[in-house]
Design goal:
Blueprint lengths: L2 E3 L2 E6 L3 E6 L21 E6 L6 E5 L2 H4 L5 E2 L9 E2 H4 L5 E11 L3 E8 L2 E8 L12 H4 L26 E10 L4 E5 L2 H5 L13 E9 L4 E6 L2 E5 L12 H4 L5 E5 L2 E3 L4 E3 L1
Length: about 270
């Protein structure tokens, strides 16, 4: 180990190559308090930089990376076995006490989620997802935006703003980074207010409200919430067959319907 920094560690291996370990790959340890220059550690290579001579490498000390396993939320032995992040923190779940522990003006907020004996790292992006090489499950549920911190345009995070280190916020789970072992969050009011984030949040038989998006010759399409849509087939337009459904269903109008089926492949609820 050649240096300990607030953002991670600098290492040298094989006596020649330089490597860095990001903060998220230290198993929750503090790089400046829990490691010492000259200390030997076991790491796995994540990737290398072809643009440098000699090559520089990104390394990981994370338990799930070293074991080629899956990142989990670790709990006290009395609480039971470790649980995968996706099971403990499903997409759509709202967390009331998310604490900011580190802030990067250009990238976003590093947060901590505490549940009982478990401490899980989380991140709120400030930059567009399309800038990241590794796409995540969050992209499947939410289109890329400039920020997951606020609905307003935010090019960088102000150090003295409402998201400074130590502040606590309400957030919603929008995805995961399996490699980094992170829960991805959004603080956006519009995301927090959405009734449904995934088709699996909707229950068959449930009465829901939506907005008419489009009426075609074959079906009526309704926006339910977020990226969850509904489709109504002509046989379910009314108790009797409508000769002119365009007179009853206007784009933008609010409607109420009961869910009859779910399509997980298309993210559509059938009414």
């Amino acid at each position: 180990m050649t240096a300990t920094l607030a953002s991670g560690l600098n290492l040298k291996f094989f006596g020649y190559f330089d490597g860095t370990v990001d903060l998220f790959h230290l198993n929750g340890l503090d790089p400046e308090k829990d490691f010492k220059v000259g200390q030997k550690v076991k790491a796995r290579v994540l990737w290398d930089s072809l643009a440098t001579t000699p090559k520089k490498f990104s390394l990981s000390l994370a338990k799930h990376v070293l074991s080629l396993g899956i990142a989990s939320a670790e709990f006290d032995e009395e609480d039971g076995k470790d649980e995968e992040l996706s099971a403990r923190f499903p997409v759509g779940r709202i967390l009331d006490d998310v604490k900011v522990v580190r802030m990067d003006e250009e990238w976003g907020l590093t947060c901590e989620v505490v549940e009982g004996e478990a401490k899980v790292a989380a991140f709120v992006h400030v930059r567009p997802f399309e800038l990241f090489v590794a796409r995540t499950i969050a992209d499947l549920h939410f289109p890329p935006k400039i920020s997951r911190i606020t609905d307003d345009h935010l090019a960088s995070v102000p150090k003295s703003g409402p998201w400074k280190v130590g502040t606590v916020h309400r957030a919603r789970v929008i995805g995961y980074s399996a490699l980094d072992g992170l829960v991805q969050l959004s603080l956006q009011p519009t995301v927090l207010e959405q009734a449904f984030l995934r088709v699996s949040d909707v229950k068959v038989g449930e009465i829901i409200k939506g907005t008419i998006k489009r009426l075609s010759d074959s079906a009526l399409f309704i926006a339910i919430s977020g990226n969850v849509d509904g489709v109504v087939w002509p046989m379910h337009y009314a108790d009797i067959k409508l000769k002119h459904p365009e007179k009853k269903f206007k784009v933008g109008a609010s409607v109420k319907a009961r869910v009859s089926t779910l399509s997980f492949l298309s993210n559509v609820a059938g009414d």
